[in-house]
Design a protein that fits this description.
Distance between the termini of chain A: 18 Å
Number of strands of chain A: 14
Structural class of chain A: alpha+beta
Largest interface: A-B, 68 and 69 residues
Shape of chain A: globular
Helix content of chain A: 25-40%
Radius of gyration of chain A: 22 Å
Oligomer: homodimer
Chain lengths: 408, 408
């Protein structure tokens, strides 16, 4: 954790324990630091698992194996290494992951495919097998850790610990979700990576858990950006232990399926926004609301083009209502748009409508809005019913300082 | 022109006059500044024209009309307004462009379609018709201007004047090309825009001029990026007056067609690199050489993903041989790549080969290379024969200062 906390930070929420989930944190010593850096989560037998992974084709062995193993639907353990991403390390990196999976599966007498591993930190250095082995052995007997301790332990360049929780009524039972995430950029110095883990006591079939996670991902994690760069290790996993006693959710027609999916989506949205709030150098949290596109997907692409535009992000950093840069970003998105139907606003005040500046445009409320921490950019494409919301942060001297003003 | 000249600037070259091309610069007063801001170029009868334009769908009326009129193949005049981009101004902006075309076509007794107009500067403010009309009237009788004066007059946030020249032997005749360009970012504060104009005395059919310009564009202007943002007004026009007395180049089989196309491509490459050298906040000129991709186009996309990555650009700014960020950028390009065949180098020294750091990697020559002004990143995808070269600049505090530390 960095010493300087993001001005956009949120306090860690009160998070209840989840039956069937046991958290442990230990110090494996992947880096020369005095903090815990290995998180071991033991999951009850019969826990369902689902996952979404980076689309970066140069992904780590952890991602390759996780994507492969999530298909069998069951999980018994999660190991998260912080301080070494194990990415771009060839066959030795893969061997290190397989050794962890073997060690944990032997301990739990469970198939290797039910052990999930993530790593985050420096790249190009194979994860040291001896440190991992000793750390995991220690974790097997370590005392239980809190959510906040686990959230801190999976972090690297994060400036604050990030968690989210929600409940849903399924049948007669109340199910609980608790989740942690790390990340302070799509990718941060030396591949900081976004890693998110959602735990619930709900009884959910793996196929529905995957469907609900994928749907939530499309509207949450896939709608955030810090700097347009994509880590080689990004991973979000959802684990459902089935201990809540609810009628099992098999598919979207099961009782409570909608409520569970909504709670899962709410947790994913909270986690995604927390990552943006810890974006490198971020001083302002930006919500881009796109309406009137030809489809929701088109709206999302336009929103990301705006959110990834260095000129839009620097304008917000400068508290400058530069709607021309928003026009530019809409136009470069490669999606259907018509200059003469386009409207742009900030914080609820239109600056331009139907392709022209508003004659009676009052910049005072916009200027006041832009001086705040939470900024909204509204864009109406004027062509259809497609909508999307995308979240990002501004681009500041802090980003340059973090990423350029040091030598590796 | 800014007071602080880019450290990557090049002196303006000696450029010969081109028969059939008359340059004039005047002060229309589009902004409250003491410099010339209107460039009027009169072209001999029978001049061929070709053009390439921004793909931004929110393009200006100048671009819409230019794209429409370039098809008829003939040009008699070019007008470039600096200080007002006339973009996002609706029907009033279009009327302003049409008024300029009408005024010049009446003066030259030529069809309106043969008058080309570009504008660059603030957006959202219709180009003042009265200032344009008076400026153009003054230009008709103004003395001849030099290439350097014209290059300065089309500039806005540029920190130095940019020109390039070349010759080619076509049949028995030597033909000459002279060209100017402005731009200091794909888009700069308030839409600075890239505008390039190439003039030659060669006798070239419009269709071949267009084919040669489009081919050159694909390997030059389409291979540069400063910040991944795309102006709504980007325009490159080529004019051929036919005064050199060469046998007319009708198509690629005409004598000298290859030599002319090569000279045109060389001028385009020089102009494109000059824009990068004036990139906002640029301290280093970066050449990204991609080989081993599945196709040339795939190589270009990978090269642009590297050149647009904020993390790669900040690493170069920090003189940090962070090849992991290059791996990440290759992987996010969405093009075929295999982590375990990928090799990355800087300035001729490999840092990683076949997906792993080199065991005997010597960082000393790389560190020395990265301290210079001209940086090369070499990437071998290891899959095929596709190649491309892309040019960009680093991302520095200067970029943030220019784009965030002011209010519009």
């Amino acid at each position: 954790m960095s010493d300087t906390i993001s001005p956009l930070a949120r306090p860690f929420p009160m998070m209840p324990p989840i039956a069937g989930v046991a958290l442990h944190t230990v110090r494996a010593g992947y880096k020369d630091w005095g903090r815990c850096d290995l998180t071991y989560v033991e999951l009850a037998e019969g826990t369902s698992v689902a996952g979404v992974f980076t689309r970066n084709v140069c992904c780590s062995s952890e991602v390759e194996l996780g994507r492969q193993n999530v298909g069998q639907g069951q999980a018994r353990a999660l190991v998260v290494n912080a301080g070494n991403s194990n990415a771009f390390t060839g066959y030795r990196g893969r061997e290190a992951v397989e050794a962890i999976m073997d060690q944990v599966s032997a301990h739990l007498h469970t198939p290797r495919e039910q052990v999930f591993v993530s790593s985050t930190g420096v790249i190009g250095v194979p994860l040291p097998k001896d440190k991992a082995r000793a750390g995991i052995a220690a974790a097997f007997t370590a005392p239980l850790a809190t959510w906040e301790e686990a959230a801190r332990t999976i972090g690297t360049t994060d400036t604050f610990a990030k968690g989210a929780t929600a409940t849903a009524v399924v049948g007669e039972a109340t199910v609980t979700l608790a989740a942690i995430i790390k990340g302070s950029g799509m990718i941060a110095p030396d591949m900081a990576t976004m890693l998110g883990y959602i735990f619930t006591d709900a009884d959910v079939a793996p196929a529905f858990l995957q469907a609900a996670l994928s749907a939530a991902n499309a509207r949450t994690f896939s709608c955030i950006t810090v700097d347009s760069d994509t880590s080689t290790s990004d991973t979000v996993l959802a684990f459902a232990t089935g201990k809540a006693g609810n009628p099992r959710i098999d598919d979207e027609n099961s009782p409570g399926a909608d409520a569970f999916a909504a709670a899962l989506a709410a947790v994913c949205r909270d986690l995604a926004q927390l990552v943006v709030r810890d974006g490198e150098g971020a001083q302002k949290f930006i919500t881009v609301q796109v309406s009137g596109a030809v489809s929701d997907d088109s709206a999302r692409r336009i929103g990301l083009a705006i959110a990834n535009s260095p000129l839009v992000k620097t304008a917000i950093a400068g508290e400058d209502a530069n709607w021309g840069r928003v026009v530019m970003a809409v136009g470069k998105a490669g999606e259907p748009a018509d200059r003469d139907r386009l409207s742009i606003g900030f914080g609820g005040t239109w600056a331009a409508r139907d392709g022209q500046p508003l004659p009676d445009y009052d910049e005072a409320p916009v200027a006041a809005h832009l001086q705040g921490r939470d900024i909204t950019i509204e864009v109406d494409i004027g062509l259809g019913q497609g909508r999307a919301t995308v979240w990002t942060c501004d681009l500041t001297h802090g980003y340059i300082a973090i990423n350029a003003d040091y030598r590796s």
